[in-house]
Amino acid sequence: MMQPMADRDADADADADADADADADASQLVAEHHGSGKLQIKLASSMASATRTDFLYLGRRGEVLAPWRYHARRIAGFGGIVVVASAGIGLCWMVGVPWLSLAYLAVLGYLGLVWRRSKQLEAAALLVAHESLDQAEPLLRELTEARWIPRGMRASAWHNLAGLENRRGNKTAALEHVRAAGRQWDRVSARRSGPWRWVHRFTEVVLLAELGRLQEADELRPRLDGAPDSDLFVILRMSADLMCAFMADDPSRLPADLHPWTRVALQTTTAELALALLAWAHLRRHDDDMGQHLLAEAHERIKLDVFRTTHPAVSRWLDATRVPGFGIARQNHQKSLS
């Protein structure tokens, strides 16, 4: 799935919320990739157009914001900090208390530290998205242990570590990291945390289901009904409910009408998990035509080596379920991804 950006509050004041401003200018972000070149972050303009390695700039309710707003906010935020700091230092000298300018310098030093750490966080997230897990891990672990960084940044580091461990197939470790992120988000105000306190909870439900801990997943799921209704959360809701039903082998747990979910999943380029699970649900309900169609769509979008590790139970079902006439198309699709 695409990677949401680490911005939590698109409308916060740039010089007030270090938590919400813990992301660096995407136009300048690069990361070494297996020593063979540079990776640069790419912002998608919508859920429908996002690829597997794209990032999304999210608003307070999880809505996808235009990339230009991200860049404009970075420029405005940096400029505001410089103007306020310069004016404050000048005012201290004018009123005869130049020693107070040291306080402004200390604030600038802290903001510089946050800026550097935010670049580290985004570089690590970019490496995770491109499967450079060994390179990303030390960067993220350093952030989880670092002092003097915003809680939101620490929570994001834990959440990215969870994604890293999930890509390795270590779902128990991934669950522990998601819960560590949750403990950090619980200490951040709702305004600053934006959609992220909800995102990690949906991730927790999916991980619990895949670990076979359905009772825990079922107990947590009702607490997510208050999540926003943006496109991102439509995908997260359906993925969580579909995964719980799949692992319980019980399609009756799902809505009677799956067409709204199916329409959204088909329109979202990175909804391969939802498509695979929707195929399972339709086939179990004896809607073979739609089931086979969704199965083919899922196979077209799945990157097999990653999917087998991140979703082993679903992958085993896919391997055991044939798609008529699909072999050549699948091979060509995998070649295009390599």
Short note summarizing the structure:
It contains 15 helices and 5 strands.
Secondary-structure topology with pairs:
Blueprint: E1 3-4, E2 30-32, E3 38-40, E4 43-44, E5 55-56, H1 67-94, H2 101-129, H3 133-145, H4 151-167, H5 171-185, H6 190-193, H7 196-210, H8 214-220, H9 231-248, H10 259-267, H11 272-284, H12 288-301, H13 304-310, H14 312-320, H15 327-337
Parallel strand pairs: 1-5, 4-5
Antiparallel strand pairs: 2-3
Characterise this structure:
By secondary structure, the protein is mainly alpha-helical. Helices cover 62% and strands 4% of the residues. It has 15 helices and five strands. It has helices at residues 67-94, 101-129, 133-145, 151-167, 171-185, 190-193, 196-210, 214-220, 231-248, 259-267, 272-284, 288-301, 304-310, 312-320, 327-337, and strands at 3-4, 30-32, 38-40, 43-44, 55-56. The strands form two sheets. The chain has a three-stranded parallel sheet, with no helix packed on it.
Structural class: mainly alpha
- Mean of all residue-level pLDDT scores: 78
Determine the fraction of residues in helical runs and give it as a percent range. Answer: 55-70%
Which H/E pattern describes the elements?
EEEEEHHHHHHHHHHHHHHH
Share of β-strand residues? under 5%
Q: Biggest sheet, strands in spatial order?
A: 1-5-4
